Amino acid sequence: MNTMKTKRTNTAARSRAVLWTAAALWLAVIVAVMVWIGAYSNAPGAAGQPPDSWPRDSRVSRSEGRPTLVMFVHPRCPCSRASLGELARLLVQDRGLGGVHVLFVNPPGMSPDWAQTALWEQSALIPGVTVQLDQDGVEAKRFSAETSGQTLLYSASGHLVFQGGITISRGHSGDSPGRSTLMSLLADEDSDLSQTPVFGCPLSGTRCEKGAVICRH
User: Fold this and answer.
1) Average pLDDT over residues 185-203
2) Residue 189 confidence (pLDDT)
3) pLDDT on residue 16
4) What local confidence, expressed as pLDDT, does residue 163 receive?
5) Residue 74 and residue 200: Cα distance in Å, rounded?
6) Apex CA 165: angle with CA 105 and CA 141, to 5°?
């Protein structure tokens, strides 16, 4: 009897040990994933080097005598929903802009319909915004835009005064240095910033980078 009781006790102890080990491993995995998500959410994309002056060969119309704002968007980047939301907030009041253009970069080989996503519809609903298709990323190359959500502000004379993103991290809305800087510049106020990080998917290619679904949170 004592032998059988001892065996049962040992078996129960081993079972508890296995359960505790499994729980510890599962917790470690959760922590690792959370750390990775945090790092990914706060990792900016490539900023590119936009020209200091408005590209002469650009087919995007620049307003004469008033500032012009351009945002480049990947049609299927979930992170850019927040960028467009921040753009809408920026334009709630008349900021003195002569033109606001949202260009959807369509990769080579993709039909124009491929860019007709919910992001396109979201952009079209923003008052004062001109939505355009950038087939094969021609304009993105002219402006050296590399990441979805990259926003450029050119002065009335056609000089670059701001470049960067207007969200605080990937897919997160709220106050950000980028939007605050644009508000100051458009109000003719001084700003210490002229460039901010861009949080979004690469503009090139037909798929957003692995893990972009995290931007949905």
Assistant:
1) 88
2) 83
3) 62
4) 96
5) 9
6) 35
DSSP 144-197: T--BTT-EEEE-TTSBEEEEE-SSSBTTB-S--HHHHHHHHHHTT---S-SB--
Q: Quick one: tokens of 146?
A: 């590399």
């458009």: which residue's tokens? 186
C-alpha 51/C-alpha 70 separation (Å) is: 13
Q: Is residue 57 helix, strand or coil?
A: coil
- Show the beta-strand stretches assigned E in 36-142: 68-73, 99-106, 129-135
CB burial class (10 A; 0-12, 13-18, 19+) of residue 55? Answer: middle
**Given 3-state DSSP classes, what are the helix, strand and coil percentages for the chain, each rounded to the nearest 5?**
40, 15, 45
User: What's the predicted TM-score (pTM) here?
Assistant: 0.76
Nearest by Cα to 89 from 195, 20, 180? 180
Residue 166's pLDDT band (cuts 50, 70, 90): very high
Residue % of the chain over a pLDDT of 90: 57
Question: CA-CA distance, 91 to 128, in Å (whole number)?
Answer: 8
How far apart (Å, rounded) are the C-alpha atoms in residues 132 and 105?
9
pLDDT digits (tens, 9 = 90+) for 77-100: 999 999 999 999 999 877 789 899
